Structures are given as structure tokens and as C-alpha cells.
Amino acid sequence: MTDTVTLTSAVDGFVFTAGHAQPQGARKGGIVVVQEIFGLDQYIQADIARWAALGFEVLAPSLFDRAVPGYLGGREPQDFQTGVAHVGTVGLDKMLSDIQACIDDLAPRGPVFAVGYCLGGSLVWLAASKLKGLAAGSAYYGSMIAANADLPLNAPVIVHLGRKDGHIPADAVKAKLADAHPEVPVHIYENSGHGFNNDGRPESDLDDAKLARERSLALFAANGAG
């Protein structure tokens, strides 16, 4: 069952909300689920439940609380533009500080991992470079990864891209990461577009989403997940 908790950013003392779920079965670790640009919508809620069912305690910070508490966007073009505006209002550093607060909350109970989608995929990449206490990260279709490819990494990361993604040139991103971080696995999913982890969306292929999750689980298991 998913509930809502409040956490405090160490950077500015801001109190924000986060979706939370306890693990089912034996606890494998903690995981921070990092949202798309649309807030903690039905697809992120479903992802929280999935990771909890796989044995992880989950925190999913509501990253736009500084702009609009509890923001939920739809999937229309204007919703995307609203989300972009919220990113600009809040700023990447404060969103990263909220992710750090989630890591710090989970860390006393075991290793902490992160998985993020779209905006969240970019933030997982940045978190693996800039934050402390992250055991490993799984970054899905983050548009800012290529521009930040040269950042040093303090945690292992895996990257997932859709071949049919009209926003992110998968081959170009893979080539740039191969130059900057040849140790980072970059997987391109031939049947999928942007947002393919969202079950039921037109760009989603269930087999691709399942395979990406299996690869993420393998990464986490190799880095301390019980």
C-alpha cells in the first residue's frame, strides 16, 4: 500500500511530500523513484507499487512541491509546457536536494538505489555524480544525460533508451556515453518510444519494459540489494 510522507531538504529546510511504500516480502533495500515531468501520476504510482512488490522500500519525492504542492499534470502538450515551467521554477539543485533527503531517510535501513524516468532519468544520472549514499541508479530516457555525459560518476548507472523515441536520439546518446563512460551499459529498446515504462501508453512495449526492469534489478543485486 502506498502512503504519503513528509521529508525535509537539508539545503533549504523545505518540507516536501513523497509517495512511500513498504517492501513486500524480504527487504532488498530502499529505492528512490524519480518522477517524470508530470508529477506523481498514475504511472509513477504504479511504479512505486511494482518496486515495493519486488522487495524495496520506496520513496518518490514530489519534486514540484516548491512550485505547486502535489502537482499532477495530464498528458496534453500544455501539461508538458507546465512541467517545463515547474522545472525552471524549482531548479535542478533543489530537486536533487530532495532526492538526497530520500536517500538519507532510507540509508539507515540498507542500500539505496534510484530509478528515474524522463526528467527523473536525467536526475538519476546527476544524482550518481553529485549525491552521497547512492548504491546504483537506473536512468530511463533522460534528455539531459548526453549533455552531462562527462560528469564523473560516484555510483554505477545503467541507461535505457527507446529506439522510437522522437525526443532523444538513442544512437547519439549511446555513442557519447561510450566515449565518456565506457563502463556504463546503454540499452536501446527497439520496439519502444519515450516513456516506455508506462504500461498502457502507446509508446510502451511490455516486453521491453520487463527487460529493462530485469536489467535494473540485476544492477541493484550486483551492488548490494538483498
Description of the structure:
The two termini are 21 Å apart. An 8-stranded mixed sheet has the order 1-2-4-3-5-6-7-8, sandwiched between helices. The chain has one domain: Rossmann fold (3-Layer(aba) Sandwich), CATH 3.40.50. It has 226 residues and is α/β, with parallel strands linked by helices. Helix 1 links the parallel strand 3 and strand 4. Helix 3 crosses helix 4.
**How many strand segments?**
8
Could you say which overall geometry the principal axes of the C-alpha atoms support? Answer: globular
Major beta sheet summary: 8 strands, mixed
CATH class: Alpha Beta
First-to-last CA distance: 21 Å
Classify the helix fraction into a percent range. Answer: 25-40%
Order of helices and strands: EEEHEHHEHEEHEH
CATH homologous superfamily classification = Alpha/Beta hydrolase fold, catalytic domain
Strand content: 15-25%
* CATH-level-2 architecture: 3-Layer(aba) Sandwich
What is the number of helical segments per DSSP (H or I, 4+ residues)? 6
**What's the arrangement of strands in the largest beta sheet?**
1-2-4-3-5-6-7-8
Please indicate the count of domains: 1
Radius of gyration: 16 Å
CATH fold-type name: Rossmann fold
Residue-averaged pLDDT:
96
